[in-house]
Amino acid sequence: MGNKILKTLTKNLGFKILAVVFAFILWLVVYNTDDPTITVSYTTNVTVENASVVTDMNKCYEVLNGTNTVSFAVTAKRSVLNKLEDTDFTAVADMNRMIVNEDGDKANVPIEIISKRSNSSLKYNEKNKYLEVSLEDLMKRRFIITADTSGKVADGYALGEVTDPNVLNVSGPASIVNKIDSVVATIDVDGMSMNLSDNVIPALYDADGQEIDTTKLKLSNTTVTISAKILSVKEIPLVFSTSGVPYGDNRVVEISSKPETIKVKGSSTTLNPLSSLNIPGDVLNVSGASEDITTTIDISEYLPDGVELVNASDATVTVTVRIEAYELKKFNLSTSQINVNGLDSNYDLSFDQSTVAVTVSGLKNDLNKLNTSQLSASIDVTDLGVGTHQVNLDLNLDEDNYAYQTITVTIEIKDKTK
Fold first, then answer.
1. Taking the C-alpha atoms of 267, 268, 269 and 271 in order, what is their torsion angle to the nearest 10 degrees?
2. Can you give the pTM of this predicted structure?
């Protein structure tokens, strides 16, 4: 029985082997027809590793020619590639493998492409891909940040102190860092009537006032904090006084200034009791002056603590002190206008003349306002008896504005009982 089976299996053995080979070839053809080997292109971003290698060289780099993305072709079975997308690949440029040119200003970094899955069944074509970078000296500088404001505070208020937010450290390509002339942080105060604080982004400017792109720079702070005080405003007059005495009969007639009033700012509690700004007399010394004096004064040093000028330009004030000499004016005073004080009721008094010449010295404007009725002339005859007497005539005038020499009048006293 066994021999019969063996004879059956070995009968026509060559044909049977040929049939198996043919069947395998047929299967292979069918398999490759249903799942052929194909080539597909993919694109992915390049990730840089070990960038500190460049900074350790005191350099910085910039990717050139759009090589921060890489396109590549992959060959594999269609069933494998159909499952892959761009995001399934990683492209890494390791700066440790950087190849620097002779001038030291450019470098090529080999890019290694790896699939996150099915990597062993993939064939990468054109493997020699490079990240192209430019190299430049790395520069670090420190800048003082200048605080600035935009907008206008609410009516009746003024901008007070704006705090500068210290310094900003900047690092990056020397060609860019060298262009930086100033760093400004601007806070918006438009319509504000109370103190405020805000986080703002500092802006970098070149010497021409053009803003510098910071995308290639590294800043120690992306935002800085600025505080601004909003103060009350009040308009007050300037009040002046003088020291010293003008020459001879000259007097100070008037003190005027441009401007006559100033606007000041401060807290409400500080401004409320402030009604004027008084400039001390020793600032305007008129000793020996015989003509007008014009001078400029910096009034900022006389402002009370906590009070500032709204406009700094108002600090310089032009002051004019008008000097005028005393003039003389003569009056014919009727003796009927002279008041008699201290006369005994038993006596009668008479003057030896009907008018008295009175000379008064004073400023022209003051003299023009004066008439005989305003002289308020009087004599005092207390303790004087019957007879003829010489007595002094008193004028009731403001001694600060007028002066007169001693005037005597002759009177006669009679006893009216006899």
1. 90
2. 0.56
